[in-house]
Amino acid sequence: MNIHELPMIIFTVVAQMSIGAFWALGAIQVFGRYRKLTVSTIDRITDVGMYAVGPLLVAGFIAAFFHLNDPFHAIYTMNNLGSSWLSRELLAGVLFGGFGAAFAISQWFGWLTRGIREIIAILTAVAGLFLLIAMSGVYYSTSTIPAWNNVSVPLFFFESALLTGPLAVAVALLIVWTSNPLAKIRKQAKEPLNAELVAFLRASLRGLSVVATVAGIAIFVTYPIYLLALSHGGDAAEYVASEISTSFLLWRLLLLGIAVVIAGVFAFSKVQTANQPQKVLIVLIVLALVLALTSELMGRSIHYDGLWREGLNTWQTIAG
């Protein structure tokens, strides 16, 4: 594990998970409208997950600050928005966190009209897309680092968001189904979920499992393409390909494969027949999330292991 880059590993994976989770919650809202459910009914399913997205992003930012020599100088990284992807990444993070916090706070206290809150939610989702693009640009724009200057890098970032985000939301839905904490503090109705809402929740869980499974399979497909491109990309790229093709990568893919099978086969089929939150289903979904998250942290460690520049690094390697 690349301990030196651990703050950035945690930040990128957690931030992408929070973006994927917010998108998943938005998709559930749209799906609920399609099924003619009322807004308050859909909120009973999605609010717990929505309130968890903000703390996730904050945790990621706190981790990222440990990467800086002086966290109080972080604001200066926004000085070059016209030319620097790092500046744009920080701006996008602030926008995503700011819009998300405004939406969560107004939703909690019932401030503003529903229409205005939904506009803020859309702005949050767009800011999340901007953050993902900016995070990708930070690495893809470094033309002297072949492992990062590769189209697979943004693909990995988007796939990671769509793998971990939906699984995190699935866990939140199971919490709502099992024991809604918002009902306990009188923020939602205490009545148990009716048959219509349970059917909607199960359908949402199936959809989340499918999205996470497809994203996991996409990561499997992207890796050989990535390694093949590196192995034909010149001396530095070829060196990196050999350096990251280790047992650590195999373990990363093994954990990802198990997570995909659990989410796409066992959890999906269990949801089909579950009329109540069974312990087996809870264990399967939580296990899939833990394995997927662990696999992504390992994959991001491999990403930072690829920090090998053309030129000086390559010359040093050839010269021994």
Automatic annotation (TrEMBL):
<keyword id="KW-0812">Transmembrane</keyword>
<dbReference type="InterPro" id="IPR007059">
    <property type="entry name" value="DmsC"/>
</dbReference>
<keyword id="KW-1133">Transmembrane helix</keyword>
<protein>
    <submittedName>
        <fullName>Dimethyl sulfoxide reductase anchor subunit</fullName>
    </submittedName>
</protein>
<feature type="transmembrane region" description="Helical">
    <location>
        <begin position="90"/>
        <end position="112"/>
    </location>
</feature>
<feature type="transmembrane region" description="Helical">
    <location>
        <begin position="119"/>
        <end position="141"/>
    </location>
</feature>
<feature type="transmembrane region" description="Helical">
    <location>
        <begin position="280"/>
        <end position="299"/>
    </location>
</feature>
<feature type="transmembrane region" description="Helical">
    <location>
        <begin position="208"/>
        <end position="229"/>
    </location>
</feature>
<feature type="transmembrane region" description="Helical">
    <location>
        <begin position="249"/>
        <end position="268"/>
    </location>
</feature>
<keyword id="KW-0472">Membrane</keyword>
<feature type="transmembrane region" description="Helical">
    <location>
        <begin position="48"/>
        <end position="68"/>
    </location>
</feature>
<dbReference type="Pfam" id="PF04976">
    <property type="entry name" value="DmsC"/>
</dbReference>
<feature type="transmembrane region" description="Helical">
    <location>
        <begin position="6"/>
        <end position="28"/>
    </location>
</feature>
<feature type="transmembrane region" description="Helical">
    <location>
        <begin position="153"/>
        <end position="177"/>
    </location>
</feature>
